[in-house]
Amino acid sequence: MKITKEFIKKIPKTDLHLHLDGSIRISTLIELAKENGISLPSYTEEGLKKLVFKDKYENLGEYLKGFAYTSAVLQDKSSLERVAYELAIDNLSEGVRYIEVRFAPQLHQNKDLNIIDVFIAVNQGLAKAKQEFNSTDKVKSGAEPPFGYGIISCAMRMFDYGFSEYFDKLLDVHKHSERKWIFSLASQELVKASIEARDQYNIPVVGFDLAGMEKGYPAVDHKLAYSLAHKNFLKKTVHAGEDYGPESIFQAITELHADRIGHGVHLYNPKLIKNKEIKDKQAYIRNLAEYIGDRRITLEICLTSNMQTNPDLVELKNHPFKKMSESKLSVTFCTDNRTVSSTTVTDEIFKAVQTFNINRKDLKDIVIYGFKRSFFYGTYLKKRKYVRSVINYYDKIERQFKLKD
Fold first, then answer.
1. CA distances from 80 to 9, 100, 103, 121, 193 (A)
2. What phi and psi, each to the nearest 5 degrees, are found at residue 196?
3. Which of 53, 79, 326, 363 has the fewest CB atoms in 10 Å of its CB?
């Protein structure tokens, strides 16, 4: 059976690395900007794709600039709820059955919106889409698996004035303190709020993340926040190896207890190892990859995003996914930002199948492992039952396409 784009769209899928503010519909961005008096470089989809949401970026820094516009329109409950709802609907339309939506709640805090309000608004949007889909006959009858989601709160590696009202206030209050201490404090506050949202408001906050400019802002500065998350059974992922080398990944795993790694695109890049004490760089990389494999630390692979932000990756065939796959590392395909990268989960998987000659068995393993390595909100037994329903449905779709052939 040939793996077609139609087949990929039909099978149940996950997206475990999905930024809310990077996945807003462009039409919604324009509409909300007009309603709230937010200035955009263009007020047409074509114009924004040319000026902001490009096919290629010079580096990660340029890629991240678009978030200033998307974040600006997400400063009230109704906008947050709407965008979260639409994001779930967009995923459901292409067969994605489980998503973990990540965002930085502190970027949306203001005088009218506290951090718990932000969590509530996003959760209401996602829950609305979930309720609508799971109330359909095909799900209620057990013919198809239900839709599920979790929320991952993102801390920022660094920030300055102008990021949000919350960060401006924090910088003012601690203006005589060392900057990295302020960054650490903000991360710790976010962990506490995430735990409160989960435990007191029953919001499915399933994980904690660290995002933003990687180079020059080491993850270890946020060690106290991750330790607090670890002690409170909040699962952990870290953006690492996206704009820095293998040492960043090692630090995320050993110092921050990361269960998963966001991107990890520079895992095999010895040129980016900066520690002069590491004499045998290839041995360091081999040992790190072996450790990742043995511990089943999952790599959240975002092919399109990586190609856009890494000029050295001239062709997709050069992406380290090939080595990751050959080493049997745990990987899952993700979009990163559906709007900023102009992609879907279906597109990401189809690109991988075409470029890396993924066969049916390996594709199924990768897709199902996305469900298995999710930060599922619920008991382990419920998660096992859910994964089994997904496998059964995957097998059903596969049989249907075999009959077509």
1. 27, 16, 11, 6, 18
2. -65, -45
3. 326
Cut 0.90: pTM above it = yes
Domains identified in the chain and CATH numbers: 5-404 (3.20.20.140)
> 258 near 230, Cβ under 8 Å?
no
Rounded Cα–Cα distance for residues 303 and 144 (Å): 29
Q: Which two tokens stand for residue 121?
A: 């608004």
CA distances from 306 to 22, 202, 254, 264 (A): 15, 35, 24, 10
In the predicted model, is pLDDT for residue 36 greater than 80? Answer: yes
pLDDT tens track for 317-327: 999 999 999 99
Give the pLDDT confidence score for residue 111 in this predicted structure.
Answer: 94
- Mean pLDDT over 371-393 rounds to 97
Name the token pair of 283.
């041995």
Place of tokens 């409160």: 196
**Assigned token pair, 145:** 């698996």
- Name the nearest CA neighbour of 232 among 183, 201, 188, 262: 188
